Amino acid sequence: MERTDSHTHTFLSRHGRGTVDEVVEAALGQGMTMVALTEHLPLPPEVDDGTFAMEPERMAEYFSALEMARRAHPDIEIITGTEVDWRYGAEDYILGWTQRWPFELLLGSVHMLTDAEGNQWEFDHPGYAEGWNERGEEAVWREYFELWMQALQSKVGFDLMTHPDLPKKLSYKPTFDTREYYTAMAEAAAKAGVMIEVNTSGLHKPVKELYPAPALLKAFCQAGVACTISSDAHAPEHTGRDFDLGYAAMRAAGYTHVTVPTRTGDRRSIPLE
Ligand SMILES: [Zn+2]
Ligand SMILES: [Zn+2]
Questions:
Q1: ω before 102 within 30° of 0 (cis)?
Q2: How far is the CA of 231 from the centre of ligand 2 (A)?
Q3: SS3 breakdown of the chain: % helix, strand, coil, rounded to 5?
Q4: pLDDT > 90: what percent of the chain?
Q5: CATH superfamily placement of domain 4-271
Q6: In this structure, which ligand is nearest to the CA of 39?
Q7: How far is the CA of 191 from the centre of ligand 1 (A)?
Q8: How far is the CA of 270 from the centre of ligand 2 (A)?
Q9: 51-82 pLDDT, tens per residue?
Q10: How many whole angstroms from 83 Cα to the centroid of ligand 2?
Q11: Which ligand is nearest the CA of 124, by number?
């Protein structure tokens, strides 16, 4: 079956390894027809601990590395994407980047919540896990779900909403019935016309599961939300990792096709064999 990867990172993230070219070569080595580089959009200095995202002054280098990779490897479609941290009050900051740089794929992610004082907290970061006890698991999950859906209504115009149940990464599972949220998320995603992803990186985190959970993926499928597949690789050799498990999860949820973004902002689909 034709293989593609819609979400990858490089050393430019400051918490990953490998160059743009090495990720592209890893994708080619697996016979892929498309790979999207989706480096973390720079964060304002007061939010970034120095390892979360790309440094602002490296954006031009990122774009030119992608252009060079395209020239060197004409046999694979290489998409210039970015993974955006959706945060309270960040819309204008994000638009400042996305209106200035010609990204071809905008990933919407929620990795951070804000407390009453406006401090950011990265709930999926092992170094800051004490925040779960301070805030309470149910409150964190509810706030996360609300923020994820809020991103869909923003002016940013996300193409793809990533790892929809990311808070489980460190194994803090929802302690309440999430069905209402799952339905609401699926309806909101369908209304916004965004893609979601099966993201295989969760298999290698403490939770050891794909994102999203089977029930949430099924809700997306039933609502008619297009689904792509991603490794969220932070090292070249992780490109395309565990995709057979991802495809199986999509089939089990009722999907018959993998949706694939293109450089022009269109989508195409690959039958799930
Ligand atoms: Zn992410
Ligand atoms: Zn990512």
A1: no
A2: 8
A3: 40, 20, 40
A4: 93
A5: Metal-dependent hydrolases (3.20.20.140)
A6: 2
A7: 23
A8: 23
A9: 889 999 999 999 999 999 999 999 999 999 99
A10: 6
A11: 1
